[in-house]
Write a structure and sequence with these properties.
Elements: E1 14-15, E2 25-30, H1 33-43, E3 47-58, E4 65-79, E5 86-100, E6 125-126, E7 132-133, H2 134-145, H3 170-180
Parallel strand pairs: 5-6
Antiparallel strand pairs: 1-7, 2-3, 3-4, 4-5
């Protein structure tokens, strides 16, 4: 059985594993218009005018853990969840990611039970044999930073014709529609 190759990231800035030794690396990256257009399709954005990041990578902890600290800046436009009008926003986000320099557990194809402690710190992500893709790490952090429910100014409540003023509940609008029939 052949596996499909994984699609290439829209915004890829790989750092080879060999470069991730003991020294500190500082990288500044930004997305081209073509990369932003591809990321806009991936994230369902109406517009995407800027994506840039400053990243600091260090691995001097002696425990085989790589630390990626970053700051991303983005200018995006999303559809309002109420009116579908464009909602422009500027994002400035700081983040820290940990990667394990040690090879991950070998997969023998068998499913294994995973125990997750919600109170524990997230374990480092296993670093692949190809190294670290800074662009994909930034794209994933952007996805987390996007407003899941953007609203245009003045679109705080959806007005239902025939509904009385008063406390708004999800069922209040349905009740008003039922009375109109």
């Amino acid at each position: 059985m052949s596996r499909k190759p994984e699609p290439l990231p829209e915004f890829s800035r790989p750092i080879a594993r060999e470069r991730l030794g003991g020294q500190v690396l500082v990288e500044e990256i930004s997305a081209t218009p073509q990369e932003r257009a591809a990321l806009a399709r991936r994230f369902g954005l109406l517009g995407f005018d800027l994506l840039a990041a400053t990243l600091r990578i260090e691995s001097g902890d002696g425990k085989g853990v790589l630390r990626l600290e970053g700051h991303l800046s983005a200018e995006v436009s999303q559809a309002c969840v109420v009116t579908l009008e464009p909602v422009a926003s500027r994002l400035e986000e700081d983040f820290t990611l940990l990667y394990s320099l040690e090879p991950g557990p070998a997969s023998d194809g068998a499913e294994k039970e995973v125990v997750v402690d919600p109170e524990a710190e997230d374990p480092p992500e296993a670093l692949g044999p190809g190294g670290l893709d800074l662009g994909e790490a930034v794209a994933q952090q952007l996805a987390v930073a996007l407003d899941p429910y953007p609203r245009a100014p003045g679109a705080a409540h959806l007005e239902v014709p025939g509904a009385e003023a008063g406390p708004r509940t999800g069922f209040g609008g349905l009740e008003a529609l039922k009375r109109r029939e």
